Amino acid sequence: MKSGPAESAATYIPGVCNLGGAEVRMRTMAAWGCLGLTVISWGFCFYAVVPAGWRFLVALPATGALLCWLQSRYHFCVHYGLLGVFNVGTGVGQTDTVEQAEYRRLDQQKALKIIAMACAGGIAVGVLAYLCS
Question: Over the stretch 14-39, which tens digit does the pLDDT of each residue have?
């Protein structure tokens, strides 16, 4: 039987999934909020003719948007992964501890990969904002 996103979201899988549906929805909403802030920041930079160096700061909300979106997409919280906890229940913020060291290591690796992807994407958006006149 093939496991879909809804099924894997309900079960903790080390290095793969550490979030349940409520946590995923919260991160999706945060991603939309950060995306809106990115668009507003970018628009302000060009409307107010902000110097190029300052326009790079658009990378900050863009990184936030990507970080939230990736966490939502992968059903994986980087904060939880780094702390060694998970929440696949129905509530937000109610965590359980990851007991096995190998599982914590897998979670930490996944968290660092997601952080790296979000930072790379955010920097790319910042560079585009910097280069656009």
Answer: 999 999 888 999 999 999 999 999 99
- SS3 state at 92: coil
Q: Which bin fits 76, alpha (ψ -120 to 50), beta or left (φ > 0)? A: beta
pTM score, whole prediction: 0.86
Mean pLDDT calculated for residue range 108-120: 98
**Rounded to whole angstroms, how far apart are CA atoms 85 and 73?**
19
The β-bridge partners of 112 are none
Q: How far apart are CA 69 and CA 35, in angstroms?
A: 10
9 confidence band (pLDDT: 50, 70, 90): very low
CA angle 36, 77, 26 (to 5 degrees): 45
- DSSP 8-state class, residue 13: B
Nearest-10 crossing angle of helices 59-74, 101-131: 140
* 21-105-84 Cα angle (round to 5): 50
